[in-house]
Write a structure and sequence with these properties.
The protein contains three helices and no strands. It is mostly helical and about 70 residues long. The chain has one domain (about 15-69).
């Protein structure tokens, strides 16, 4: 199986780096939602647009936005 984001070999749906980025993304959503009231798709868009977001997190957010949108 390959990573759904980058195509690298993986045992599950994502390589270790992208899986870690997804965990961080989902964990931080709870905080953002409480503070801003953003919905999931709006949160993903804000993450993608943010210049301070890391590359791996942006890649995962972009993947999730297209897969869930």
């Amino acid at each position: 199986m390959n990573c759904r984001v980058c195509g690298a070999p993986s045992r599950e749906g994502m390589c270790k780096k992208h899986a870690k980025a997804e965990r961080k993304l989902r964990d931080h959503f709870r905080v953002w939602a409480e503070r801003t009231g953003l919905e999931w798709m709006d949160y993903l868009e804000a993450i993608i647009e943010n210049d301070r977001t890391g590359r791996l997190v942006k890649e995962v957010a972009t993947y999730l936005r297209s897969a869930e949108g």
